[in-house]
Amino acid sequence: MLGIGFYFMKQNKSKEDYYVGGRGMSAGHIGLSVVATDVGGGFSIGLGGLGFVMGLSGSWMLFTGLLGAWISAVVLIPKIYPIAKKHQFLTFPQSLAFRYNAKVALVAGFISLVGYIGFTSSQILAGAKLASATFPSISIFNAILIMGVIAIVYTAVGGIKAVIYTDTIQWIILMAGLIGIGIPIGYIHIGGWEAISSTLPSSFMSLTNITFVQFFNWIITIVPVWFVGMSLYQRIYACKDEKTAKKAWRIAGLFEWPIMAFMGIALGLFARVGYEQGMFTEIGYAPGVVMDSELGLPLFLRSILPVGLMGLMLSAYFSAIMSTADSCLMAASGNFSTDILGFFKGKQKYDTIKHSQIITLFIGAVAVLIATHMQNVLELMLYSYAFMVSGLLVPVLGMLLLKKPSSLAAMAAMIGGGTTTLVLILTQVKLPYELDANFFGIVVSALAFAVFQSVGTKRVTA
């Protein structure tokens, strides 16, 4: 991975090469990069945790990824790609600046930056938890440093091309590890279908072991990310044409669900069987002892795989983790360099590859620092999603659906929605009907947008 990064360091000639790959990438590489980024470490480890807790119904989380990918291919790409190509956009907020103004883009840049730093941290933490649970001699802190440094260095030096090509390789490694090692050996080791059916409640093998509210929370948190995700806009811009972008998004959706969804869930379900069989007793987790559900999968792999195969399987999961961490880091770097510094200091001063590399290294260091202070991967990832969605979804919909959207309405929606979600997350307020904080953030954002859009329309009419 480091080698690919340094190879593309020599290939990049401009900031456009660094952030959008010269706008000439193919559907195959982009599609695999998109799904590797979206599924990645958080969902790989997180899906294992869901499989451990609820069984096959946890796969519905990635069904939201299929929905998001295919809806955005039909609704978003046809509207955004032609404009982005014509005006040479590098970041998502630049599309908002085109329909609103530069101040709206600045606030969007801040929201996206914070969200993607949190997302990068969640991926690094995912890798650290996997490494630490598998190799007890490595502390979570040291594992965070190892994972973080490697992903940050190849991303910083190689830019988006390094990210996309490493994503393709990492996704192939992950698929090979799951299909060739983890799933077949895990299935045989626990005793096959007979052991699964006799050990676990029937609800674990059902697709309806989920409440409507839980599925609704996943939908409103994950589907909108396909409309506000900076890493996804970078890949739309990197495609050689609109047709390529749509094809890439269709490929990504199919890989998300059912392919990756059920493979990730299956391994978590196998881990639960192993736990109930007493497989983790010597490690300190006898049946009935409370344990972190996200540790089930790495402990299971540690228990069943011999030396060699264990290393190959870990490389598969590390690949998934880094494929997301690098993309999120690249997105955050683009936001900081283009949307924030570009606004305050002018474009020319920070228009070099060297400045972009330094910014990427700095943001990566911040993400590593945050990862050392967090515990739950899926929680941190979903919080980051929620903050971005509640702040950015409504202005994006206004940009796509309205002829003359109001800049003031967009500003009020971003600040109102993002602040509401952040406050609810930080205060841990118990919300009615178990709805996600993101839902209330979106509602506040939509109301603020509607009020200020209405005021702006009345003024224009007058």
From TrEMBL:
This protein's record includes keyword tRNA-binding: no
Protein name per Swiss-Prot or TrEMBL: Sodium:solute symporter family protein
Species this chain originates from: Flavobacterium litorale
Family: Belongs to the sodium:solute symporter (SSF) (TC 2.A.21) family.
Highest rank taxon of the organism: Bacteria
TM region positions: 30-54, 60-81, 102-126, 138-157, 169-190, 210-233, 254-275, 295-320, 355-374, 380-401, 408-427, 439-456
Predominant location: membrane
Assigned keywords, A-Z: Membrane, Transmembrane, Transmembrane helix, Transport
Subcellular location: Membrane
Topology in membrane: Multi-pass membrane protein
